[in-house]
TrEMBL record:
Keywords, comma-separated and alphabetical: ATP-binding, Cell shape, Cell wall biogenesis/degradation, Cytoplasm, Ligase, Magnesium, Manganese, Metal-binding, Nucleotide-binding, Peptidoglycan synthesis
Main location group: cytoplasm
Binding site for Mg(2+) 1: 242, 255
Name of the molecule in the record: D-alanine--D-alanine ligase
Cofactor, free-text remark: Binds 2 magnesium or manganese ions per subunit.
Cofactor: Mn(2+); Mg(2+)
EC category name: ligase
Record PROSITE patterns: ATP_GRASP (PS50975), DALA_DALA_LIGASE_1 (PS00843)
GO biological process: cell wall organization; peptidoglycan biosynthetic process; regulation of cell shape
Annotated active site: 17, 138, 266
InterPro entries named in the record: ATP-grasp, ATP_grasp_subdomain_1, D-Ala_lig_Van_CS, D_ala_D_ala, Dala_Dala_lig_C, Dala_Dala_lig_N, PreATP-grasp_dom_sf
Annotated positions binding Mg(2+) 2: 255, 257
């Protein structure tokens, strides 16, 4: 048995990001097995605790994106089962999944974030705005609205589930933080002008530059701020901090993704490669961070 024991690569889930999770999961599974790790796929769909129990795993490599997998739910279940897992713990996962709450905490820690625009039953109070769901990932539901007519076209019911932000002109970057240390930022340049779901997962729809095309001192500053943001919300593993760098070189944090994708177009592997870390080594390094936030009711591990 390797030092990791049997590793369950948790993938799939029931969120809108299921297909992305499966792509990430199979890529990591292949890399771990190639490295000699006793790794098995655990595709979670219905009875999650039963699926995990039957897999007989000692630790979990969590690649469940979105609802239930990234918001603290599966993390809590793994705590109860005593199975160490990768990624952030229950509290940090829940906080980062809620973009409004995480922005408030980041702001209170002295980290700049975009200005929120209030939404009432008639829509945002001003335009243009970026409209996004409060608790979704992979830029699902992201819209750039330039008028009330566009809001009405969306026919949204329940505006409390949505948030609006004033657009920031600048360079969009993603800074991955591996075990507390920032990797080289990736500059994201979508050809459509908006880094939405289609731009993220359609080959050729977005140009990526790593390291970002920014002055060296700005890059270092962004990496420092990313580390501070991750520490402020107590994130672990390999979270990714998405930012906009304004014309003055000041980064504004858009959000923290606690379980970034590990697909062929994902940003975390690009950052790691720029730092000289292969995909296989990246997977092993993330796996080495697996832990239990509260010790687990069953004493940790099987």
């Amino acid at each position: 048995m390797s030092r990791f024991g049997r590793v369950g690569v948790l993938m799939g889930g029931v969120s809108s990001e299921r297909e992305i999770s499966l792509r990430s999961g199979h890529a990591v599974l292949k890399a771990l097995q190639h490295a000699g790790v006793d790794a098995v796929a655990v595709d979670l769909q219905r009875d999650w605790s039963r699926n995990i129990e039957q897999a007989g795993i000692h630790s979990a490599f969590n690649l469940l994106h979105g609802t239930l997998g990234e918001d603290g739910c599966v993390q809590g279940m793994l705590e109860v089962m005593g199975i160490p897992y990768t990624g952030s713990g229950v509290m940090a996962s829940a906080l980062c999944m809620n973009k409004l709450l995480s922005k408030q905490l980041l702001s209170s820690a002295g980290i700049k974030v975009p200005l929120d625009i209030a939404i009432n039953e008639n829509g945002p109070l001003r335009y243009p705005v970026f409209l996004k769901p409060v608790s979704e990932g992979s830029s699902i539901g992201l819209h750039l609205l330039e008028s009330k007519a566009q809001w009405l076209e969306l026919n949204i019911h329940g505006s409390e589930s949505w948030m609006a932000e004033m657009p920031v002109n600048g360079v969009e970057i993603a800074v991955s933080v591996l075990d507390g240390r920032a990797l080289p930022p990736v500059e994201v340049s979508p050809k459509s002008g908006v880094y939405d779901y289609t731009s993220k997962y359609t080959a050729g729809a977005t140009e990526y530059f790593c390291p970002a095309r920014l002055p060296a001192e700005t890059v270092r500053y962004c990496m420092q701020r990313a580390e501070e943001a991750v520490a402020a919300l107590h994130c672990k593993g390999a979270p990714r901090v998405d930012m906009i760098v304004d014309g003055g070189g000041e980064p504004l944090v858009l959000e923290i993704n606690t379980l970034p994708g590990m697909t062929e177009t994902s940003l975390l592997p690009k950052s790691a490669a720029a730092a000289g870390i292969s995909f296989e080594d990246l997977c092993l390094r993330i796996l080495a961070t697996a832990s239990l936030e509260n010790g687990g009711l069953m004493g940790g591990g099987r």
